[in-house]
Amino acid sequence: MRIMKNLMILVGLSVALFAMSVTGARAQLITYPEFTGSFTLPVQARWGSMTLPPGNYGLYYGEPFKGGLKVVEVVNKADGSPRGIALIRGLSPASGATSELVCTRDGNMDFVRALDLPVLGESIQFGLPHNMKLMARQQNHNATKPVAELHGLTQRFPVTPARG
Fold first, then answer.
1. Residue 157 to residue 164: CA distance in whole angstroms
2. What residues contact 140, with CB distance under 8 A and at least 6 apart?
3. CA-CA distance, 97 to 40, in Å (whole number)?
């Protein structure tokens, strides 16, 4: 039953995004935001199906409609695009004291893997490409650690909450 609900929400989001792109609308899709902020991306990064060039972005986290799935909306501040929705893979307690995007580098591309929002007490995880290996065993230890932490490939970009 939950899968059907999620599919219906995804279809609704797809129709809304299509309608906005056809009409050229630049209105914010998330109507029930829990967090609004901005960030500067100094590098090109993949975030779900979006590829974001370096630049300044607006960020909205919440529900497109009451009782819907929570999503993250990203808008390029310079011209209102690229505009995209990032579907959430999982939630966990916030890990830091400041809001930030957590990226992992793979080759010459950064991938957004989490959005840490301590103001909400949440860390939001996003899907990564299937061929990207994030976990590995250290040679002299039995513990499994993220490859990014082993090789220093994690980058954190601050997210500034909007004043309101």
1. 22
2. none
3. 19
